[in-house]
Design brief:
The structure is a homodimer of 377-residue chains.
Chain A (H helix, E strand, L loop, with lengths): L1 H6 L7 E3 L3 H11 L2 E3 L2 H6 L5 E4 L6 H10 L3 E4 L7 H13 L4 E3 L7 H12 L5 E9 L9 H4 L7 H17 L3 E9 L10 E8 L4 E7 L26 H7 L4 H20 L1 H6 L9 E6 L2 E5 L3 E6 L2 E6 L10 H11 L9 H20 L3 E2 L5
Parallel strand pairs in A: 1-2, 3-4, 4-5, 6-9
Antiparallel strand pairs in A: 6-10, 7-8, 7-14, 8-9, 10-11, 11-12, 12-13
Helix pairs in contact in A: 2-10, 4-5, 5-13, 6-8, 8-13
């Protein structure tokens, strides 16, 4: 998200807050931002218009509420929170203080999925009926902070990865989810977070979807997607490489150190204009997803959307992508919401609905029963 | 199935019965078999050891029972029947008359799926946990007899196509199915059978599976399978071609005539030894299927099984395939059962369990509720 923010001339990164002094130091040096050790102080800064809450999921609620209470607009990373109670507090705080609350970025907001939605809305393919999404990747073996692995802190695949698929499916299906039947898996005792998930989802309008995820670095759905990686880069096959690399890391504190190093080099790349322009990318994507309408199927292609209609298939191209890929649409949405030009689609209610589906997946996996929505908040 | 039967030197095609005189005439001419207009007469023929029931699904029950009552072993096409009552009558008749009853051929019996099962049984990848199967093909627009289209006669995708996926998933998962949540679609008013289906299936042992099918000739999962067709042939992209070809057929009686013509040329190919040997085929397959074990994923590759293990991926090759592809394993199983060498895996109870899952899919789609198994018979 940072690259998209710094590249937008309407956005200035003015301040940052982190309890990790070292991380804060790197950030403020790279982005020339004011450092704050306490969030209240950042929220009291009159130069700040929008607070981007990128803290561990379990803290999204209190941090977003604090920002709203100080009259700041709020962008919060997905998942919006880990409970419907927190979501409701965030929505209420934003409403009470008359500020915008937006949740993102997710792959539901990616150009390809948005284009698919636009084609569906065009009506030529008839109503959408069935959506199937698979993602098999190496998520669990990338360098991970504690809150990605510890279920109590919102760790595991459901809140961190499947939520992208939920948002893609919701974007394409429209309407509220009424039923979830799901199962999750935690298969690696050495990395004991939930790493896989399978869900059947039905919507109020009768659309059904399946969402399959595995982050165990075995099969890789990018094989089905032209060997293009998640952020649009060319991706040679590397099955098992991520697990192997993690195997070289001697303990969890080294993993955290490597992660911090990676973050600071990511910051430098975000600020390097030559890097942004140098590489032609394909569209960002998240596994494979096929949406079936009565008169045609749709799926993201490398550089656009492939339409399989009654008379044959054709590709709808999307504008070429440069770094940062995709995220710009969300920055645009935030900007328009903040200046009052357009109410956001991905507001608190939107984000809450995805949290609700995540919670239903967890509950269905636990009880081995179908869960009807809405859940009691 | 006929090519596999005529090529096995242990099998003789001695007689045939059909109420369609023209079809019967073609069959007995091509296969040099005795013609019967009534099934009782065929069943009374002392030269007949095994009756292969390939009648419309709704007649499998009475026909299989009749054959068993005459002391004949029975092979019955999938689905075994359209109700559990019929399945139970068939099983009871076979037991009472001390004859074998086998159900097939399905893609669960294909060499690749059998090899996947063998690898799972080997235990190196740990227990199987999640299986996902997609098939998007052109099924609905191929030339179809009435009983493929009319739900009352067992028409529609669930009993005709999804049953293959059910058998693949059951073969890989092991154990009985305990829960089904599903939805089906009938999207083309000009071809009003059920043409799509999505099901979440949970097994007694905790394995979960998703089964997605669309026969609407839009997206084609063979794109994900090396552009190899169902029976292992090289398959250039031809989206929409089947629908277009069917559009040239002026009415349903012409469709039936073309189907009959196709059948007789198929018979000739079955008997043509040069045809069998001439073409090197890839493995037969039915869409894409990925089985996830705790320590690795498996899927059919073009010529074997691809294993994505902790340390990377490798391919387990299968013996080269010539026409007829795959079916031979089932003929072997029938032969061994009939001579008393080995009890069959794909017996009446096996076939009944797949019918039960089909019925649960239909019921869940109707009620939009989870269906718990076993169903009341």
């Amino acid at each position: 998200m940072m690259p998209a923010l710094v590249q937008d001339p309407r956005v200035s990164v003015v301040a940052a807050c982190d309890t990790d002094g070292e991380a804060l130091e790197v950030f403020v040096r790279e982005f020339r931002a004011k450092p704050y050790g306490r969030l209240e102080e950042l929220c009291a800064d009159p130069d700040v218009d929008v607070v981007y809450v990128a803290t561990p999921h379990s803290l999204h609620g209190p941090h977003a509420v604090m920002a709203a209470e100080h009259g700041k607009h709020v962008m919060v990373e997905k998942p919006m929170a880990l409970s419907l109670e927190d979501c409701d507090l965030m929505i209420a705080a934003a409403a009470r203080n008359n500020v915008q609350l937006l949740v993102g970025y997710t792959y539901g907001q990616s150009p390809a999925v948005q284009k698919m939605r636009e084609i569906i809305d065009g009506g030529e393919l008839g109503p959408v009926r069935m959506i199937n999404a698979w993602n098999y990747n190496n998520w669990l073996y990338r360098l991970r902070p504690p809150h990605d692995l510890d279920v109590a802190l919102g760790g595991g695949a459901v809140f961190n990865q499947v939520v992208h698929q939920i948002e893609m499916v919701r974007t394409l299906a429209g309407g509220p989810v009424t039923s979830v039947r799901a199962s999750t898996g935690a298969w690696d005792t050495g990395r004991p977070a939930v790493g896989s998930s399978l869900a059947f989802v039905e919507f109020d309008n009768g659309v059904v979807a399946s969402i399959a995820f595995s982050g165990y670095d075995h099969f890789d759905t990018d094989e089905f997607h032209f060997s293009i990686g998640e952020t649009g880069e060319v991706k040679p096959p590397a099955h098992g490489e991520t697990r192997k690399a993690l195997g070289q890391v001697k303990d969890y504190s080294e993993e955290l150190r490597l992660r911090a190093e990676g973050r600071s080099s990511m910051y430098r790349r975000a600020l390097d204009p030559t890097h942004h322009e140098s590489e032609q990318l394909s569209q960002p994507h998240f596994g494979v997803i096929v949406a079936s309408c009565e008169k045609g199927d749709l799926r993201p292609s490398g550089d656009g959307v492939m339409v399989y209609a009654d008379a044959g298939k054709y590709e709808v191209p999307l504008p070429p992508v440069h770094r940062p890929p995709g995220w710009g649409g969300f920055v645009e949405e935030v900007y328009n919401a903040v200046i009052g030009a357009e109410p956001p689609v991905h507001d608190g209610r939107w984000g809450r609905a995805s949290v609700e589906v995540c919670l239903a997946i967890v509950e269905s996996a636990k009880t081995r029963r179908e869960i009807r929505l809405p859940l009691e908040g």
